[in-house]
Amino acid sequence: MPSNPTPLAEAHPDAPDEGHRSVHAALTRSSSGREDLRELEAGLDSLQSDADRKHRIEWSRILLPVAALVVLVLIWQFYVSLGLKRRDLVPGPLDVLGQIGVLWGEGKLQEAVWTSLQRGLVGFLISVAIATPIGLLLAQVAPLRRAFGPLISGLQVLPSVAWVPAAIIWFGLTDATVYFVVFMGAIPSIINGLISGVDQIPPQYRRVGTVLGASRLQMALQVILPAALPGYLGGLKQGWAFSWRSLMAAEIIAVGGTIGFGLGSLLDQGRVLSDMTIVMSAILLILAVGILIELLVFGPIEKRLLRSRGLLAGSTR
Amino acid sequence: MPVVLEHLGKRFGDGAPVLDDVNATIGKGEFVALLGASGCGKSTLLNIIAGLEAPSSGALEVPSDGAAFMFQDAALFPWLTARENIELALKLRGVGKSERRIKAQELLELVHLGTAGDKRPHELSGGMRQRVSLARSLAQDRQLLLMDEPFAALDAITRDLLHDELERIWKETGRTIVFVTHNVREAVRLGQRVLLLSSRPGRVVQEWAVTEEHHTDAGLAGQLTGAITSRLREEIRRHAK
Q1: CA–CA separation, A167 vs A287, rounded Å?
Q2: Backbone phi, then psi, for B177, in 5-degree steps?
Q3: Which of A136, A154, A192, A247 is the most buried (most CB within 10 A)?
Q4: Higher confidence at residue A316 or residue B16?
Q5: What is d(CA B196, CA A301) in angstroms, rounded to the nearest whole number?
Q6: Share of chain B above pLDDT 90, in %
Q7: pLDDT tens, position by position, A230-283
């Protein structure tokens, strides 16, 4: 704050101990009395703290992605207008937009998005409820982790689509099949996220907890869980991605029976009808839902979390 | 006597002893600076006094309610504000909610941070963080306060001020302080007594009394600093082979 000329170096008539004004810092007392010390500290604090920054709407954050999208669509349109491929094999942006309008008019689009979104969210939330206590337990109890850790990591690598045939045999063409596949996709990745979140806690935090006299439960709830939050959130994000992907895979493969009509089903319908505009519409809708969830849910939560811990400085977010 | 160390030894596994036959007594309300080069087991000794580690041999007497501890890095929890960090220490001690609020504000005022209580650790400067950390260790309300090079990572200007600050708070609160440092000037500036630990194994090889005159007369303080430094270098030279 250059506009605030605090007289740091002046002598203070009210300060006691006027006898030795000469300062031998580092070896002897370097301030003269309590008020002097308070003032020096206040000056240093204001010099060393950053001024509060105002949060403005950053237009580049909105305009740049929109511009990128426009460029991609233009390239797409340009490619189509070259006429290298048959129009029914590679439809243009306007054809797909038209098809989306038709699907909206029929109510199919709303039904598909709503069915899939609902399943995805319910499946994800149940996965979180199952995975969180398991993850905490594995992270804190060493023998359990040694026993089950490799298996959980392995499950994360195994594509959840691999469970679709088994699920169909066990549960038939019902919603249970879809949810089972979602669980097998999301639960291992949430568990792994939480475990790695706990692993990355600086050991100092536990020591502080011990020194402050925290019990085991207090340590888990007041220290470990909040400290592991960034890693846990990463796990949740990945868990959601896995839920959504697994759900689409399950919906594409398992069609009919009592399984409702989701985005995956729409995609499969496009394939059966050999209608490329439906296929492209479904792909774009699946992508759009994924992007919206990231932008509206995980993005803001993550940003708030990181900012409150001072972890955003210098990042390109 | 709050702290008595008798023939204290510590070795990790089968390695060479880190501490060997450490003897010291620290009186109530005393400010003792524990000085030594790297590898003298200063931090290990502090951990043993704090009860974070057990000695391999010897006996020690410490206050039954344990000790407050201040680390080299402030080690504040980044998800809590300065005030909440202090309140957590009070909470884990079992202090009621309304009293926590009042006590935390008192402690913030004590370290001259009365208006910065709602800032997060990352919004504070290094010196402010260490003052919050000091307030938090005072919130533990233990007679014995152990400090592990708490000012080592600070710039020289801030450190000089915090020396004054710590001395003031020590006088106001009457704590017993064991202050570990590798800085001879810091030891002379703060301690009433300076204990020099040898390196590998750590052992108390000499001690000096620091009088009130040393804290006001730079010439005297300089002489003592010189004497301690040359003794410390002697210790370090022993390891040159």
Answers
A1: 25
A2: -120, 130
A3: A247
A4: B16
A5: 51
A6: 5
A7: 889 989 999 999 999 989 988 888 877 777 888 988 999 999 998 899 999 999
Which of B92, B148, B225 is the best mutation test for A, with the most CBs of A within 10 A? Answer: B92
Say which of A34, A49, A229 has its CB closest to residue B125. Answer: A49
How far apart are alpha carbons A203 and A210 in whole angstroms?
A: 11
Q: How far apart are CA B231 and CA B238, in angstroms?
A: 11
* Helix residue ranges per DSSP H, A202-275: 203-211, 216-218, 225-227, 229-253, 263-272
Asked whether the beta carbons of residue B75 and residue A204 sit closer than 8 angstroms, the reply is: yes
Alpha carbon distances (Å) from A267 to A183, A214, A262: 22, 54, 9
Interface test with A, best of B48, B79, B228 (most A CBs within 10 A): B79
Quote the ipTM score. Answer: 0.82
Confidence (pLDDT) at B86: 92
- B90: closest chain A residue by CA: A212
Instruction: Give the residue carrying structure tokens 């699920």.
Output: A167
Q: What is the DSSP string of A68-108?
A: HHHHHHHHHHHHHHTT-S-TTTS--HHHHHHHHHHHHHHTH
CB half-sphere exposure, A25, CA atoms < 13 A = 9
- Evaluate whether B32 touches B191 at the Cβ level (below 8 Å): yes
How many other CB atoms are found less than 10 A from the CB of residue A248?
A: 23
Selecting from A37, A49, A218 the residue whose C-beta is nearest the C-beta of B164 gives: A37
Instruction: Tell me the domain boundaries of chain A.
Output: 97-308
- Which residue in chain B is spatially nearest to A219 when comparing CA positions? B92
The CATH superfamily of A97-308 is MetI-like (1.10.3720.10)
A309–B122 C-beta distance less than 8 A: yes
Q: For an interface test with B, give the residue of A22, A208, A210, A301 to mutate (most B CBs within 10 A).
A: A208
Q: How far is A45 from chain B (nearest CA, A)?
A: 7
Nearest to B161 among A40, A50, A212 (CB): A40
Chain A CB within 8 Å of residue B237 CB: no
Q: Which two tokens stand for residue B223?
A: 């002489």
The pLDDT tens digits for B224-235 are 888 888 888 888
Q: Are A115 and A109 in contact (CB under 8 A)?
A: no
Which contiguous run of DSSP H or E holds residue B10? strand B3-10
* Cβ pair A212:B217 closer than 8 A: no
Chain B positions in Cβ-Cβ contact with residue A213 (cut-off 8 Å) = 66, 92-93, 140
B81 close contact with A: CB closer than 8 A? no
Nearest to A204 among B71, B79, B136 (CB): B71
- Give the mean pLDDT of chain A: 83
Dihedral of the CA atoms B148, B149, B150, B153 (nearest 10)? -140
Gap between the Cα atoms of A158 and A70, Å rounded: 37
